Amino acid sequence: MRIVVLAGGIGGARFLLGVRAHAAEVGADITAVVNVGDDAWMHGVRICPDLDSVMYTLGGAADPERGWGRAGESWTVKSELAAYGAEPTWFGLGDKDLATHLVRTRMLNAGYPLSAVTEALCARWQPGVRLLPATDDRLETHAVAELPDGRRAVHFQEWWVRYRAEVPTERFVFVGAESAKPAPGVLDALAGADLVLVAPSNPVVSIAPILAVPGLRDALTAAAAPVVGVSPIIGGAPVRGMADKCLAVVGVPCTAEGVGGLYGARAEGGILDAYLVDSSDEGARVPGLAVRAAPLWMTDERATAAMVAAAVDLAGARG
Ligand code: GDP
Ligand code: CA
Question: Residue with the nearest Cα to atom 2 of ligand 1?
Answer without folding.
Answer: 9
